[in-house]
Design a protein that fits this description.
415 residues; mainly alpha; Growth Hormone, Chain: A; 79% helix; globular
């Protein structure tokens, strides 16, 4: 994809773009765009989805009568809305530019963060999380393509990794801020203060998308097939790739979404200690995409993806020890794999699609991912309430990760 995007740029100028050295202003503009795309991904995923992991214990006790099942249901609403947003992207992609999709998603996500910041009860919080999921899909799906076309072709993989790093930075920020607010809380709803601060940041990013982010007018082809399946089927190994993405969607959320609750409820960690572990996980996500993406360039996507699934499952089991330093190692490892796994899958799709087919193809793959995300939090919450602990939630995540490794090992023709 990156090479094709580069050839399109050369055809516009009538000369080899590699022969033209970008000036300082252009370089600054490129990195401004990359930084802004990273920020939108942060709002979409770190704020709109993964902040719920650190907010869950407080919101559960304040608004949901302490029910893990209800907390899992709200998480399910978030990912169900993400799935709906994926369908919306596959329909809108031929009608709205990639930047236009990001702008719409930012409006939805920013509004949702503001609503969560003032939610007086469970239904209002549920509505906020639903909007976050919808907006998150509209932001996240176009983001890797926008980043990949901004940097030179040979750096397209790095661009995808940088977008993932934006999410990691946001996860670290959320975890540390939750820890800070929790230490200074007198028992009030400090998790809503967390959402208020994130809302202010999202407003700034929203303004930036309208003022600084420019559309280049490229729209994915309307011939991608229903839901983008036609485009996805052109990707070599599309069945195991899609299946692996689906297993990742189920497995990761059981760990990321319930880690804090597991450590507090089952392992006796204080909220402060649990927040530190979540921050360690977030710090690892800053490195995960770039690390695994670069590694896969050298040894291949299939080998890297298979190993990453195995390691993620191992980290889920290691977290069950409930003792240090194993929990910290598990959190760091899970963060690396959590960030790297989707980057590897996206990179494979980028490798084998054009600017016209990337959007529909990735949307179609994300549908399977979205379905498993939708059912995973509810199953996790039910298991936790039934057994009185989160042990079997993490065991289930590890088992599904091994299934993902089996699918990943079947991927062929991966660079």
């Amino acid at each position: 994809m990156a090479q094709r995007l580069g050839s399109e740029e050369r055809s516009r100028s009538g000369q080899d773009a590699a022969a033209v050295k970008p000036g300082p202003v252009l370089v600054e503009r490129v990195w401004l765009v990359i930084s802004l795309v990273m920020a939108t991904a942060c709002v979409a995923q770190a704020f709109g989805r993964f902040t719920w992991g650190v907010a869950l214990p407080g919101a559960r006790d304040d608004l949901l009568d302490g029910s893990n099942t209800m907390a899992g249901l709200l998480g399910t609403l978030n990912v169900a809305a993400y799935l709906t947003g994926t369908f919306a992207v596959s329909w809108m992609a031929s009608r709205v530019t990639l930047v236009g999709l990001v702008r719409i998603g930012m409006v939805l996500s920013t509004s949702a963060l503001g609503l969560a910041a003032i939610a007086p009860n469970g239904p209002v919080l549920a509505a906020a999380l639903t909007l976050m999921g919808l907006g998150g899909a509209l932001i996240w799906i176009p983001s890797p393509a926008i980043a990949a076309r901004t940097l030179p072709p040979h750096r397209a993989g790095m661009a995808v990794g940088l977008v993932g790093s934006g999410i990691g930075i946001g996860v670290v920020f959320s975890g540390q801020l939750a820890r800070y607010l929790g230490q200074r809380s007198d028992g009030g709803q400090f998790w809503q203060t967390l959402y208020r601060i994130e809302f202010v940041i999202a407003v700034v990013v929203l303004i930036g998308t309208f003022v600084l982010l420019r559309s280049r007018g490229d729209r994915p082809s309307a011939t991608g097939g229903f839901g983008g399946m036609g485009a996805l089927k052109t990707v070599p190994g599309w069945i195991p790739v899609t299946a692996a993405y689906a297993t990742f969607g189920f497995a990761y959320i059981l760990v990321i979404g319930f880690l804090v609750a597991r450590l507090e409820d089952d392992s006796g960690f204080s909220p402060d200690q649990a927040a530190i572990m979540f921050s360690i996980l977030g710090a690892a996500t800053v490195l995960g995409g770039l690390t695994l993406g670069s590694l896969s360039d050298r040894i291949g996507r299939r080998v890297t993806l298979t190993a990453a699934f195995v390691l993620f499952g191992a980290c889920a089991l290691l977290a069950l020890t409930g003792t240090q330093p194993w929990v910290a190692i598990a959190a760091f490892g899970a963060g690396l794999m959590f960030a790297g796994l989707p980057v590897l899958i996206i990179a494979h799709i980028v490798d084998h699609t054009t600017a016209d087919t990337y959007g529909p193809a990735f949307s179609a793959a994300t549908l399977a991912f979205g379905v498993t995300q939708m059912i995973s939090p509810q199953i996790g919450g039910l298991l936790a309430d039934h057994f009185g602990s989160f042990t079997w939630v993490f065991v289930l995540s590890a088992g599904v990760s091994l299934v993902g490794a089996a699918f990943a090992s079947r991927i062929e023709n991966v660079g």
